[in-house]
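Recall that a protein's primary structure is simply its ordered list of amino acids. Everything else, from secondary elements to tertiary packing, is in principle encoded there. The following example makes that idea concrete.
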Amino acid sequence: MSVLRNLESKLAGLIEGTFSRAFRSEVRPVEIARKLAREMEEHKSQSLSRTYVPNQYRVYLSPRDRERFADYEEALVDELAGYLLEHARRERLVLVSRPVIEFETDARLGRGEFGIQPRVVRPDPDQEHGRERAGAPAPAAAESGRTMVYSAAGRAAEPLEQRARARGHTALLLIDGRRMLVGPAGARIGRSRSCDIVLEDPNVSREHAELRPRGDSWVLTDLGSTNGSSINGRRIERPEVVRPGDEIELGTSVIVFDVE
């Protein structure tokens, strides 16, 4: 049995069953595990005889996703750390200590998105040799990677730091005479009551599309809807930038995009 499949089996009764039934469009624990392993692989450091990898990982979640993980967070952290330890062993990668996973909340993330920041933290020499002493300083971070954002919708990863430039830019959507503001975390649009913007249109899918900041722009992504999404009458096949004055068509609904 593969390491990832073994993790899936462990999570099935504890977490995955709950998430697969109720939150199919949300961040899933096994997807976090996959991306943690990817970040480990992408931040390797080669010495003469060994390949070192980060030993600490901060996982950033949107406020909604973090709330849903609350009851399972401690157990999930233990399972993810064990998974990374076994992954490193199998790939012959060297960790300076047991992997540490920390969860944090970041309002710049939308539901279904999560960020990962890898770090190398070198243990205190006395602790490393089992000679702890009172008042020893905390380990210092020798290296921190940038925080990459991943999405349950399968979008390409992007640095979380780019989101900071979008702060202060508020998207404005004009829908049937209504003005709706979208903050820096973006919004999911659809017929479901769980969406940030709900459209009463039978031709709109339950979770149809999402609008997210990316750098200094805003990007529209179709979420695999039945009838697709269009910008100015042109159907989009991948995430595309929307500009002030553009018309977004979802089902039979027309939304005018602007920025305040």
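The CA atoms of residues 54 and 120 lie 4 Å apart. The mean pLDDT is 79.
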